[in-house]
Amino acid sequence: MYRHKTKIFVFFIILGLTVFLYTYINKPEKDTRDIETEVSLTTNEIIAYIDNADNDYLKSYINKAIEVEGTVKELTFKNNIHSILLSSDNKERLVLCQMQQGETSKMENIKEGELVKIKGIYKGSLLDAILLNCIFIQ
Amino acid sequence: MLKTLLSFFIFISLGCVVIEAQDYIDRQGEITFFSYTSVEDIQAKNNQGLSSISLETGDIAVRILMKAFVFKKSLMHEHFNESYIESDLYPEATFLGKIIDFNQDDDEQIRIIKGDFQLRDVSKPFEIKSKITKENNTYSIEGELEVNIEDYKIKVPKLLSPNIAKTIKVSFKFQYRPNEK
């Protein structure tokens, strides 16, 4: 009887560990809605930080959620992914916001030239600042 | 008088060169990598690759932000950035090269792109067979290359080595438009 109970106990321990490991390994990326915003900036402020080589300030927000306010320059749909390109006073530099799945329906109401506020995960900058998993705030 | 005329002609010629040598750019190029093993297939996509080409010279430049790769599983994303690529230390991969015998007037051409691919501060020469298409005022370039992870000093722990291919297939597609300045 005792050995039988031990076997059942070990079985449940192994089952629990397997479920935990499977969930841990296959954990999807977090929804941006569930991540706390670290800082709120305008596109001009972001581009100014990049241009002035004051990139260390922005680097501290890499992989963190930031809010960006700016004017829509272009809406793109490439490789099944919607993005919004926000303009700044510097014509050569933009803020690229790759939208999170589920934001597609809201994209239909957005027009070029419109002022929008977007929250996304800041990934760094090349010529432009890059944000992924973006959602609309306003 | 002759000097003034000469200066005028030089100025006009330079102006033409500047207009003709206008760069084409893609801010949202697609770069995908695949690792196939019997244990696990891993794929990641980056849709924010930056690239520019010069129609005059065929010069091509690519910059890829390593943290902008998207994986299906967040643990893969974490391992890729923290253990393999160390993207805090090496945030970008770059390619600088030249399209051999590029003809800006051809609607479709298969060309070799010769250049150096740099990752983790290691630079290796590549010759990449690429398809180049022209449509209206845009150019598309697509192709693929195989990257040996040992060449770039990417260390994979023994426990995980069956999961990661020794050679990673990288494919790319860029769609260039005139760079607005």
From TrEMBL, chain A:
<keyword id="KW-1133">Transmembrane helix</keyword>
<keyword id="KW-0472">Membrane</keyword>
<keyword id="KW-0812">Transmembrane</keyword>
<feature type="transmembrane region" description="Helical">
    <location>
        <begin position="6"/>
        <end position="25"/>
    </location>
</feature>
<protein>
    <recommendedName>
        <fullName>tRNA_anti-like</fullName>
    </recommendedName>
</protein>
<dbReference type="InterPro" id="IPR024422">
    <property type="entry name" value="Protein_unknown_function_OB"/>
</dbReference>
<dbReference type="Pfam" id="PF12869">
    <property type="entry name" value="tRNA_anti-like"/>
</dbReference>
Automatic annotation (TrEMBL), chain B:
<dbReference type="Pfam" id="PF04264">
    <property type="entry name" value="YceI"/>
</dbReference>
<feature type="domain" description="Lipid/polyisoprenoid-binding YceI-like">
    <location>
        <begin position="53"/>
        <end position="175"/>
    </location>
</feature>
<dbReference type="InterPro" id="IPR036761">
    <property type="entry name" value="TTHA0802/YceI-like_sf"/>
</dbReference>
<protein>
    <submittedName>
        <fullName>YceI family protein</fullName>
    </submittedName>
</protein>
<dbReference type="InterPro" id="IPR007372">
    <property type="entry name" value="Lipid/polyisoprenoid-bd_YceI"/>
</dbReference>
